UniProtKB/TrEMBL annotation:
It is found in: Mitochondrion inner membrane. GO terms for cellular component: mitochondrial inner membrane; respiratory chain complex III. This is Cytochrome b-c1 complex subunit 8. SUPFAM superfamilies: Ubiquinone-binding protein QP-C of cytochrome bc1 complex (Ubiquinol-cytochrome c reductase) (SSF81508). The gene is Uqcrq. It holds the Pfam family UcrQ. Component of the ubiquinol-cytochrome c oxidoreductase, a multisubunit transmembrane complex that is part of the mitochondrial electron transport chain which drives oxidative phosphorylation. The complex plays an important role in the uptake of multiple carbon sources present in different host niches. Belongs to the UQCRQ/QCR8 family. Component of the ubiquinol-cytochrome c oxidoreductase (cytochrome b-c1 complex, complex III, CIII), a multisubunit enzyme composed of 11 subunits. The complex is composed of 3 respiratory subunits cytochrome b, cytochrome c1 and Rieske protein UQCRFS1, 2 core protein subunits UQCRC1/QCR1 and UQCRC2/QCR2, and 6 low-molecular weight protein subunits UQCRH/QCR6, UQCRB/QCR7, UQCRQ/QCR8, UQCR10/QCR9, UQCR11/QCR10 and subunit 9, the cleavage product of Rieske protein UQCRFS1. Keywords: Electron transport, Membrane, Mitochondrion, Mitochondrion inner membrane, Respiratory chain, Transmembrane, Transmembrane helix, Transport. It comes from the Eukaryota. GO terms for biological process: mitochondrial electron transport, ubiquinol to cytochrome c.
């Protein structure tokens, strides 16, 4: 059973749905909804992340200056 194409296994109680690729819209509303949403999400998070990261990067790493004279 299922060894070659003439004896394929019988699949029962499985329902599959498909939509033709010619009927799908790959990027619907990218410019009208997608880009404004990206900007909204970026601008809402940038002021939460950047100040802490700036303070962390502003400090010197003492390990970089161990061998200086």
């Amino acid at each position: 059973m299922g060894l070659h194409f003439g004896n394929l296994a019988r699949v029962r109680h499985v329902i599959t749905y498909s939509l033709s690729p010619f009927e799908q819209r790959a990027f619907p509303n990218v410019f009208s909804h997608g880009l404004p949403n990206v900007w909204r999400r970026f601008s809402s998070q940038v002021f939460k992340v950047v100040p802490q990261e700036f303070e962390r990067l502003k400090r010197k790493n003492p390990a970089d200056y161990e061998h200086d004279q």
